[in-house]
Design goal:
single chain, 148 residues, alpha/beta, five-stranded mixed sheet, three-stranded mixed sheet, 8 strands, globular
Length: 148
Amino acid sequence: MIRKLVAVSLLTLASSHLMAAECKVDIDSTDQMSYSTKEITIDKSCKTFTVNLAHSGALPKNVMGHNWVLAKEADAQAVASDGIGAGVDNNYLKASDARVIAHTKVIGAGETDSVTFDVSKLADGGPYAFFCTFPGHISMMKGTVTVK
């Protein structure tokens, strides 16, 4: 009996190492200014992480566009505010904004975009936030990113 328990325990341990971490997330955005998630947890074993953003609404990007931007939580509001003047063609992001860790382009109805970033950029522990920089959207379209 003990031999069987040890064998089962070893098999369980071995199989857990074979299951790779999911190093991506799919996020939907809508015409109701919402993301399909408010929290992203990145497995610490991930070297890179990919965010796939979709827009399932009906409105074009100049009316109800969305993007996905990652920055330190303390910088989120300033990044969004500073990006307003950049306009939709620049994804509502100030050019070369060093506070932005990763971002997708602004998308509208039926569009998708993805971004892959180096998880080591999150090494200091954060806290980190993701948000939409389309004017006024950050109040409803935001969430947290943690590495565990």
